Structure formats: C-alpha cells, structure tokens
Amino acid sequence: MITFTRAGSTIFLSVLRAARELSPLVAAATSAPDEINGSVTFYVSDDGASGYGIDEDGTLVSVFSLIRGRGDAIVTDAIINGATKLDCFDGYLPGFYARHGFTVTKREANWTHGEPDVVYMELAA
Question: What is the reported pTM?
Fold first, then answer.
C-alpha cells in the first residue's frame, strides 16, 4: 500500500522536477515547477515516485506518478486531505475522476486549437 506524506514546496518541486526529467508523459501532463504558485499544500509518496498538491481553495493540482496504476490511491488520498475540485483535459480523466465522485461543472475549449477541452469538476456532496 502506498502512503503519502505532507511535504514542503522545496521537496515536492524537486521530486516533480525529477519525475518530469524521467518521464515525458509526466512532463506533458504537469505544469512546470516554476509555474506552480499560490498557497499549495503538497504530498509525496513514501518512495518519491508520486505526488499531488491541494491549493487553498481545495483544487487538486500537480498530480503525477512514475508508477502506473497509482491514480486511484492518489485521488483517494487527495480527497481525504481536502481536495474538492480540479480541472483536467477531456478524454480519459473526466471519467476517471467521476469514479471518485467528481462531477463536471464547466467545460471550455482548449486555448490550443484541436486539443482536448478543459473540464472543470467538483466533488459531489
């Protein structure tokens, strides 16, 4: 079983940078560490291969994993720690998050023509 521990921004951003260097998929799916700002509480897996953040309004941000199959554990832990909303690209992710109780609240066209829409979701009450 994977566990997540609260981490300071220096540790989280270092782990995220390393994951982005090791995995083109993680690099494509996450914001660059320098673009992460605001008041975010970060969590990192005990092995340093996965993590996520929750900003001050409960938005789940910067979800990543170098280990395939950890998504359910990440989202479950994030909800326990206060995640109540998120945004993601259309495709696989809205259905994945819906399995965890999130519902679509808004959809916007992607700023890059031809790319998937941005889907906003909130945890159902």
Answer: 0.92
